[in-house]
Amino acid sequence: MTTLTAKPQIVFDTLAYSKKLRAVGFTEEQAEAQAETIITLITEQLATKADLKEVEFALRRDLKEVEAGLKRDIKEVELKMKEVEASLKRDIVALELKIKELETSLKRDIVALELKIKELETSLKRDIKELEISFNAKLKTEIAESKADIIKWVAAMLVAQAGLIAAMVRLL
Fold this sequence. Notes:
2 strands; rod-shaped
């Protein structure tokens, strides 16, 4: 047996390994099969420092690509956030303007309603005063008419009593 190199940096002496196996009771065929199995494991499954360096390099490259992608994404998100913020600020300003317009309109409406209320109040007071005057005039007229009727009845009753007294005095 000879010395085989599984990978450039891993050297495995199959002859020395085979001798050790035969020394502990393995047959030559068993020792060779065991050595070949070890070589296969070394060449196919063990990573060398160079392999690890390659993987490390690839990972670092991938990490830089991911980092660059994330930075791009972050910048895009920040830009979008600024656009949304600017849009929201415009919307807020527009809403504040509408609120002020509504407030001004409501104040005008309130003033107009207060004026109408005062006009109605004045009109109602005038109507009440006119009704009071009219009522008082009618009441005075009715009282005067009632007085006149009462005086007529009293005078008629006096005349009737005087006539009755005169008739009674004649009879007596």
